[in-house]
Amino acid sequence: MIEIVSESKCIQCNLCVSVCPTNVFDRVDGNIPVIARQDDCQTCFMCELYCPVDALYVAPDAEASVIAAEDDLESRGLIGSYREKIGWGPGRTPITKHPLMLAGNN
Q1: d(CA 53, CA 75)
Q2: What is the pTM of this model?
């Protein structure tokens, strides 16, 4: 379930608002998007995937909201981690082309 939109990282591009299939976010003029309908989140990770600056955190448990502090998630490398794991974003190697994955397929 969507848990965090980072105020310090968000660039107000509103891609998360546009790609969310269940309309979880609201646009806010001159500010970051707001998680307006968290219970509608289906944990599809689309918002986290499309965020160009890794400003979102979607907890993998679709059934329960997690009280999470942004600083804690950041220090644990969890904000934007799903996007990183699949290789989306500048300078990232897609997991299917990662040298360790290729070595296992020989």
Answers
A1: 16
A2: 0.76
